[in-house]
């Protein structure tokens, strides 16, 4: 098989050649955009799932859908060590530019408000703005306005800013969609502000929505901030592919390159990948590269498996394991030893069982657990329960000894 024609793409956030198993989510998003365009009420959207299930790819595909409809869009990746103002300001600036508005005065007025919002970055509410030379300067070529979105209180400012931008888009017959990846990493104050702004927009029926993506505990993060967040967002769980869709993800790109798989090869590939999209791409690429000809056989898959596993061990599992401290690694190994099938199909353990396994007091393990939570290596959707954010991570740790 010609390696140059290998169609598979095992990269972080990289769109696969065939976006299998996500047709329903994309159709639903089309409906959301159309309803908002017609002035119908709709909720913002939150995608949740483990790492490697394709949340970022789906987020990017939804953004492309919005762009094709003439919406203004912007995207950010949340970081726990960064406040929301700077990245959100850049995303909203891009969204306003994408709208292509003809009324320059109205556009510049809103951009002035956006600039005022951005320039409060890093400043505390109730304190005077920093001197001009000490302020961060966004790349917005209009003067900053005063008296709108510039209080320094992120919740007040974001409500005002979203309202102005949504009104601008609505007057032009368009909408704005802001996409936030790794949404669980937003700071608590920023989460609260975002929920409040989305709540205000939904009440006013203005055409601006937020589409977030994050780990399975993201709904709990939002709920802890604002109790009404459970009704504010539509939650969509993104999971692994079923057998039919996994076969489609393997076969369609191959057929486009005049190749195919035997049934036995597809059986072996599904057993190895469990339908997780990132694993599908890694194993598809490996099987293609070792196969001498089409169709790719089960023997080819067996030959390719060690290479695919080694690539995952370095780029998908190992890079995350290396970020952990010795105490955190000990904690993860205990979770790997204890994880078991839960009712909803995820692999979870109780924090008390980890303490028992390590013969330690639960309080002494809190720093390790909290460190893993902050690094996004484990999550806790329920009090007293813990699970890996990465599929097959426990299996990797057990096999690595």
TrEMBL record:
One family name in Pfam for this protein: AAA_16
Region (Disordered): 1-23, 118-144
Entry keyword set: Heme, Iron, Metal-binding
Tagged with keyword Hydrolase: no
Ranges of residues in domain Cytochrome c: 170-274
Signal peptide positions on this chain: none
Keyword Metal-binding (UniProt): yes
Record-level Gene Ontology MF annotations: electron transfer activity; heme binding; metal ion binding
UniProt-listed PANTHER family: ATPASE DOMAIN-CONTAINING PROTEIN (PTHR34301:SF8), DNA-BINDING PROTEIN-RELATED (PTHR34301)
Annotated protein name in UniProt: Cytochrome c domain-containing protein
